[in-house]
Please model this.
Amino acid sequence: MKKNRLNYFEKGIKNPKNAWYVVRTNLDIMASRLIFKNTAGFKNNLEGKNIEKQLKKLQENSSAMSHPSAEQLKEKGYANLQYPFEKDLLSQIVNKYSKIIDDERFSFVRSKTKNGLVTSRMINRAFMIFPEVKGLITEDIMRLIENYYQSHFQIIHVMMWRIYHVPQKENLEKEQYGSYWHCDGANTTITTMFTNISEVTEDDGPLHFQSVQRTQELIKKGYKTRHDYNLPIEIIEDPKHVLKHVGSIGSTVWVNTQYCLHRAGIPKPNHARDMLQLRIIPSREPLYEDWLDRCEDSNDEIRFNSQK
Model:
């Protein structure tokens, strides 16, 4: 991991415009580790805490009953939702996705090795191509999310992608599709629903994640960043604490990826994994009727579309 860390710094220092960004980012993460015991970033934690305070004022008169999954997410940083979405509708989405994920008119190469081996493909702006996704957000799903936030919410990202096998050497030289342990650097009130849209076994590189409590323990033990763990991999990947999102099509976990260390598993040769991701944020306004049209590009989509 230290080799990757050196490459990361060298790239920043070689480009003077990036040098200050690298220093500032690492100071921000250092403060985040020290004070909040995560690596989401000091600024993102402060933003999240401020939003939480605002939400508490709105929640004072709330009499909503607690939901077990919402309580689990609050307590552990993740919740296993089992199969929350309507099966037939999800099947329609999966069938459509399977036909276009390899079509360059609708998808793009999300990551590849130095040798040009494609390791991930992503639907470009799935929120525009899959209006069917809107039907997944039923009244039951809305109540569940509102129960967690004790407020309204908005869905800001809809992403769909496939990951492939990566040879170990290439993955050590360059991180592929979030395959190193990390916390996301975003507002800490943002949560993410991960839905398997292919059958996912241990061989298919399932999403790996850890509880907020274990994440805090690892940071106390010395975990630094995705580019320099500063801990033996045996400690970070202690099987007593690592959870893996295996399951059939439709199986879903809900995670606060700012609070919980996580990484993409790497499929074995001739295996792949397909994922639908919904990213959610609390809101003062009820979910907009046209919420799908208001979704934003992800960082991957921004990079791809800026090059077109």
